[in-house]
Structures are given as C-alpha cells and as structure tokens.
Amino acid sequence: MGELLLGEPPTGEAPLIVSLRLDPASFARLDALRRAHFPAERNHLSAHLTLFHALPGAAEAEVAANLATLAAATPPMPLDFPGLRSLGRGVAVTVDSLPLVKLRGLLAGAWHGWLGPQDRQGWRPHVTVQNKVAPAAARTLLAALEQGFAPWSGRGEGLLLWRYRGGPWAAAGEFPFLGERAAG
Questions:
Q1: Which of 22, 33, 40, 42 lies closest to 166 in space, CA to CA?
Q2: pLDDT for 72-121, tens place per residue?
Q3: Nearest CA to 51 among 162, 179, 176, 172?
Q4: Of 56, 82, 142, 183, which is most buried with the most CB atoms under 10 A?
Q5: CA–CA separation, 161 vs 172, rounded Å?
Q6: Which helix (H) or strand (E) holds 108?
Q7: Mean pLDDT over all residues of the chain?
Q8: pLDDT of 184 over the 70 cut
Q9: Mean of pLDDT values over 60-79
Q10: Nearest of 65, 71, 95, 46 to residue 172 by alpha carbon
Q11: Which stretch of DSSP H or E encloses residue 138?
Q12: What is the dihedral of CA 21, 115, 39, 156, to 10 degrees?
C-alpha cells in the first residue's frame, strides 16, 4: 500500500465527511428505515455510515489521495448488521466489521492532527435511522423495530468523500475498494 499523506492542519473551507459505500441491498433497506422514521423536516440525507464527521476542507486533495491509496489496496469488506441501539434521541442499526474498524483506525492515526472532538472519541459503527426526536418517541420506535428485526450481512464497497455545507452533503469523491480478496 502507498503511504498516506499528512500535511499541516489546514483551516478555512467547508469540512469534509467520509462515509462507507454500502452494498445496494443494505443501502436500500437502511434508507427505507431512515425515510420512514427520521423526522422529514430534518432528513436531508440518505442512509449513511459515517467514518469521519469533520476533516478540514482545505485538506481535500490530501484526504482524497489518502482515500484513493487505501481503497485501491482494500477488498470489499464484510459487514454484519446484528441489531439496533438507542441513541437517546434516536435509533441506529449497529454494524460489526473488524476490517472496517481497522481501516478507520488506520485513517484516524494518519489524520490524528486533523480530528475534532467528535472524530477523536470512541467509534461505534452504525447507521442512524432516527434522530432528534423526544427520548420517549425514540424508545417507542426502538421497541417496535426490535419486534421484527432480523440481522443480516452485507458488504462495504468503498469510501465516499463529501463536503458539508450546512444541509445536504455535496459529493466530493468516490473510492471503490479494488484490492484482491484474501484466499480462504
């Protein structure tokens, strides 16, 4: 794998977000849940699994180069969606994937000087299907969804780079996982 680039922490431009591209079936299932349960007036995004919330926008070229290098050497990765969890004021589908945790850890190490408080804290992969509601409403939805929830397996197929401009995210790059699958 090529070396990840890291310069001085730049400032001043719209922050960057990095998310995981999900396989089409998992994305469709999660996006349907989000459309059904996220408050419509606040739902400006499709379902997504965020790896980083706010990288410096002025570092876009370096971030994109890092993502391209890493994705080129990374095979599509298995994901398990084993259950649901409370977010206090919302509900998320949990995601288990050791390869994903390792990949995010590698990037977090390379980008440590760029990470804000939200991206420095412990990371528990999930896809939010409801947020910014009263805690009682979140508890009610969690109980209802748990009744019919069936775990499933999917795949992470690449990395997506976005610019945050206050509402919907603006696409800034897509980096498919191109690495060869390990034998066995």
A1: 42
A2: 999 999 999 999 999 999 999 999 999 999 999 999 999 999 999 999 99
A3: 162
A4: 56
A5: 5
A6: helix 98-110
A7: 90
A8: no
A9: 97
A10: 65
A11: helix 135-148
A12: 10
Q: How many CB atoms lie within 10 A of CB 181?
A: 9
Instruction: Please name the residue that has the structure tokens 């009610």.
Output: 140
How far apart (Å, rounded) are the C-alpha atoms in residues 75 and 49? 18
Buried b (16+ CB within 10 A) or exposed e, 50-72: bbbbbbbbbbbebbbebbbbbbe
- State how beta strands 16-22 and 91-94 pair: unpaired
What are the residues whose beta carbons fall under 8 Å from the beta carbon of 159, sequence distance 6 or more? 18, 19, 20, 21, 51, 67, 70, 71, 174, 175, 177
Mapped to the 3 state alphabet, what secondary structure does 22-87 carry? ECHHHHHHHHHHHHHHCCHHHCCCCCCEEEEEEECHHHHHHHHHHHHHHHHHCCCEEEEECCEEEC
Contact predicate 94/124, CB 8 Å? yes
Rounded Cα distance between 160 and 34, Å, is: 19
d(CA 77, CA 34): 23
pTM greater than 0.85 (yes/no): yes
- The label of the residue with tokens 């999660």 reads 30
Give the HSE-up count for residue 61: Cα atoms under 13 Å, Cβ half-sphere: 4
